[in-house]
Design a protein that fits this description.
CATH class: Alpha Beta
Shape: globular
CATH superfamily: NAD(P)-binding Rossmann-like Domain
Radius of gyration: 18 Å
CATH architecture: 3-Layer(aba) Sandwich
Strand content: 5-15%
């Protein structure tokens, strides 16, 4: 029997790479994203051509009804949920100095990045707790955080706050669910080559040239996907509440 994995924001970038990697791990994959299916059909076809059994659910993780529908459709299609990867996330629509940040932007970013992550985790954990244990543990939950959880960016404070919150969500659910056999961990990417970072490519190209990152290159979505694979593997059954930095060594404090 195959494990079933939900990947939010799984239609592009990091999420798509994760969906593909888990599919290659012989998981049935449910991709949850905001775009209409026809907009991402080519990517879905590529996964299916590679042998991935998948289901696509359109919705917004910030919406309670969409979160519940995601859980219900997943269970209806595949019978259970074994892995949740909380990858969906947005940056501010407009970068503004902290003194100019709007409440509307704050609410939007935290609604998706933090509130959506927390309450989808809650819903999926409840589902996992009611399932028979068929694999090496009851379930894996992996949150995709960001180096911005600890690194200040005063032109996108709402994003930093949201990712700091995601780290605490990881800690809280890891604590609550460990005894139940559900393992909760966080992958914390640095500068990854995606749509989100494409608007500031020149800035990060310069920082890479200047040696800001010990491994002097852009991270790729596949780098993050490998870390998720690691956390969801049978090799990681005595680890919960941990953070794995996938940032080229950016977290190292240097003199």
């Amino acid at each position: 029997m195959k494990r079933t994995a939900i990947v939010t924001g799984g239609s592009r970038g990091i999420g798509y790479a994760i969906a593909r990697r888990l599919g290659m791990d012989d998981c049935q994959v449910v991709i949850f994203a905001t775009g209409a299916r026809e907009r991402v059909q080519e990517k879905l076809d590529a996964l299916e051509a590679a042998g991935v059994s998948l289901h696509y659910v359109q919705g917004n993780v910030a919406c309670a009804e969409d979160r519940q529908r995601l859980v219900e459709e997943t269970v209806s299609r595949f019978g259970r949920i074994d892995i949740l990867v909380n990858n969906a996330g947005v940056a501010p629509l407009e970068r503004r100095d902290l003194l100019e940040m709007t409440e509307e932007s704050f609410d939007r970013v935290l609604g998706i990045n933090l509130k959506g992550t927390l309450f989808l985790t809650q819903a999926v954990a409840r589902q996992m707790l009611g399932q028979e244990i068929l694999f090496s543990c009851r379930g894996h939950i992996v949150n995709i955080g960001s180096c911005s959880a600890e690194v200040s960016s005063v032109s996108r404070g709402e994003y930093c706050v949201s990712k700091a919150g995601v780290s605490m969500v990881t800690t809280l659910f890891a604590d609550r669910l460990a005894a139940e056999g559900i393992l909760v961990n966080e992958v914390r990417p640095g500068v990854i080559s995606t749509d989100m970072t494409s608007t500031v490519k020149e800035k990060y190209d310069r920082l890479i040239r200047e040696g800001t990152f010990p491994i002097p290159r852009w991270g790729q979505p596949e780098d993050v996907a490998e870390a998720v694979h690691f956390f969801c593997s049978p090799a990681m059954l005595y680890t919960t509440g941990n953070v794995l930095d996938v940032d080229g060594g950016f977290h190292i404090r240097r003199l």
